[in-house]
Amino acid sequence: MQPQEKRGLLLAAAILFAAAGGRTGEEANGMNPAWKELTPEEARVIVGKGTEPPFSGTFDKHTAAGVYACRRCGAALYRSTDKFDSGCGWPAFDAEVPGAVRREPDPDGRRTEILCAVCSGHLGHVFIGERLTPRDTRHCVNSLSLAFVPEAALDGSFARAVFAGGCFWGVEYFLQQARGVIRAVSGYTGGHTERPTYQ
User: Fold this and answer.
1) Active-site choice (70, 73, 119, 140)
2) Which residue from 36, 53, 149, 166 has the least number of CB within 10 angstroms?
3) What CA–CA distance (Å, rounded) separates 72 from 36?
């Protein structure tokens, strides 16, 4: 058999955590009963589009592994692996969970506001071109707009799915680009620990 004729199907188990289970829809102007009740200060920032004072937020210097979610609706917004210290006084991220953050120009046209794509809660602003990271993007987010889900609690906080496919890396790559996916991991299902060999 010629090398180009050797074909086989690898079982790819892509395990992912999807955005907030059961909390979907365009309910920006209503009050979804699943949403967390906000304190007056949280409401001032999230609903009233306010800003917390710099260097005052819980997550400015926070470095634990996990996921930052919307404080109001619980949707996954940012991974801890995308967080960096920008020195600006607010949590900074150079990427978001795909499809989790919506961008809108401020009324004055000078900045771009970032909002939760599920509940339209105000997060902060995004800045491009500062050259702080290789992605050249800084999501400047209010700590009051965020809730943190530690790595150990991700399974219990977000939906999980297993997909089978023909190529580990292809399945993983495309799932990582999918809306709401926090993480995609390749591996075997059914107890296999070694890759099959093909003749």
Assistant:
1) 140
2) 53
3) 5
